[in-house]
Structure formats: structure tokens, C-alpha cells
Amino acid sequence: MQHEAIPEIQAATTLEALQTVKTKYVGKSGLVTRELGTLGKLPPEERKTRGAEINAVRQAIQEALDTRETTLKREALDAQLASEAIDVTLPGLPLPAGGLHPINRVYDDLTGIYERLGYTVVEGPEVEDEHHNFEALNVPWYHPARDLQDTFWLEDGRLLRTHTSPMQIRYMVDHEPDLKIVVRGKVYRYEATDATHESMFHQLEGLVVGDHINMADLKGTIAEMARGLYGPGAKVRFQPSYYPFVEPGADFAVYWDNPRGESKWLELGGCGMVHPNVFKAVDDLREAQGKERVYEGKTGFAFGLGPERIAMLKYKIPDIRYFYANDPRVIGQFRGELE
Ligand code: DAH
Fold first, then answer.
1. In this structure, are residues 159 and 127 in contact, taking their beta carbons and an 8 Å threshold?
2. Which atom of ligand 1 is nearest to the CA of 163?
3. Which residues pair with 197 in a beta bridge?
4. Which residue has the higher pLDDT, 226 or 93?
């Protein structure tokens, strides 16, 4: 029996096959087991030798089974390890490169310029209350910006911020002067869309507060930004304008000096010296929070501009709606570097 069993054990190439052989010979009703069962029928004098014989066979088979089992298990493990092996020297699969949205590229250019000037970059809530968006910014009730038609109002009386200026208030309530910040973020206006108007767009807001800050500091700062964007020859132009939260207020344009012959004045945004009423509103809010009044008597300037206009010109995007239409053909052009 042993002569049959051993080759069968050797021939088993899987653990399942080996189990079958095991059952056949040494299982509960296996051949060897049954053989042992016949001992009782033998005369006592034969029983002992016969018993020893069968047990020797049984042991030889069991040993062969154990050895084979160890081998098969090791082979299975080796095979598994081989199949799961990772060749760390193989080159990686080429993945399509992602890209930065053109608005984020322009934001990065802008905040880079301001960070080099020592500004802190902050963001704020897009859902605002009327007080921060209008009241504290000295926007009177009769100002057209308050018009129901320009603002997305929420049912609870709050609104989607119509500009990033309310972050001026929030930041000053939480921080004492001196300070230099730029705010980046989305703003919303309830208006008809066309090639240059979207109901959601972006702004970069600047605020500097300290002692003896004046209009020359503001002009120098905007000029520095223009040079950062368009090179050392860039020019800036200011013209008087009205924004309730600044006095005096101005609009500014930068000269976009483009070697392709498309140079032009680009109306970029508004700016001015922080209105005393804004500082007062901040101090009122601070006082209500148990903080010291530290803004009245300070001086500062503020500005706000739209990165969309810069991006449209820089990347030759003719319609502002392309930025947000999620058309991969537009955004797909901004993979990798595209300068
Ligand atoms: N918040 C203004 C707007 O959305 C832009 C602006 C103008 C911001 C003048 C300022 C500023 O900080 O001083 O139209």
C-alpha cells in the first residue's frame, strides 16, 4: 500500500489533491485505517506484528503527506509572492497632467506679488450678512448696490457677498493694526450674463492700515502690482471715483504692454483711503465683542480688482463664461506651463 500511496502523494500538485490522497489512505474510512480495523479479527499472536506493520506504513504515509504539504504550501506562497511582486524599477504609467484654472494662475501671480510685499493672504465666507456686506462698509440704504436686483438674498435674510470688501471688516474686528492683507475669493451679483459679466466671479481685495498711510502709498502699491504683472515698464492711471467705503476713492487702470501689439489700458478696479465711518463701524463691532476700540484715528487704503479681466487678456479668453462652463477644451489648455 505504501508503494502506491507515496507516488500518489508525490503526484499531488495542489493542497486539495493532497487532501484527497490523505482521505483515501489515512482518513476515517481510508485504506490504512480500515486495515487497522481488521486487526481485531486476527489471532492474537499475529495481531501484534501485523499491527506494527500497518502502523509503520501509516507513519510512512503520514510523513510523506506532511512533507508534501509543507512543499506545496511553500510553493503556493512563492507563487503568490511572485505574482504580487512589484518591480520598483519599472517606469511609471504616464498619467495625464492636471492643470491650474486660469483664474487660480492669476490669483497666484497676484498674491505672489503681495506676499513679497509682506501681505497676509486671507479668505472669508461667501454667505454674508447685510451688516458686513453693506452697513459697516458705509454703503447707505439708497446706494444702488443695495438694490434687491443686484444681490442674491437668502431666505434667512443673509446674502451672497457682492464683493470681498466685507472681509475688511471681519479682519479688522479680529486683528489689531498695523495690518496688510489681500483677500481672494468668489463674489456674486444677480445680473444678466454676457461676455464680460457673470453672476459669480472673483475679486482680490487689499487692505492696509497703520499710521500715516496716504494716497501715495496706495499709488505706489498699485504701481508695484502693475510692474509685477506686466514688467518694469508698466504704467498705472488713477481717476476719481466713488465707493462709499473709501474717501477719496478712485478707479485704477494699468497699461498692458504686450509685444504682440495689443497694448492697452486695462481698467482693473477701485481703490481709495479707508473711510472713517468704516473704522468706526469696526470699533463698534469690536466693542460689542468686548474688544478695545483701536481703529478710530488710524489711516489706511483699500483696493479691489477682478482677476477675470487680467486672465481674459493674458490667455486670450474672449468670454468670461468660458471660465465656468466646465468645457474641458477650454480648461484642458491650461495643463502644465503655458506662459
Ligand atoms: N468692492 C468694490 C466692488 O466690488 C471694489 C472696491 C472699490 C474695493 C474700492 C475696494 C475699494 O476696497 O477701495 O465694486
1. yes
2. 4
3. 194
4. 226
Distance from the CA of 115 to the center of ligand 1, in angstroms? Answer: 20
- Return the biggest CA–CA distance within the chain: 127
Grid-cell match 498674491, residue found:
111
Taking only the tens place, the pLDDT of each residue in 14-61 is 889 889 989 988 888 888 888 888 888 888 888 888 888 888 888 989
Ligand 1 in reach of 246 Cβ (< 6 A): yes
Centre of ligand 1 to C-alpha 40, Å, is 107
* Prior bond of 319 cis (ω within 30°): no
Judge contact between 79 and 23, C-beta under 8 A.
Answer: no
Mutate which of 159, 160, 163, 201 to test ligand 1's pocket (most atoms within 8 Å of Cβ)?
A: 163
d(CA 335, CA 286): 46
- Please say whether the dihedral angle defined by the alpha carbons of residues 246, 248, 249 and 252, taken in this order, is positive or negative: negative
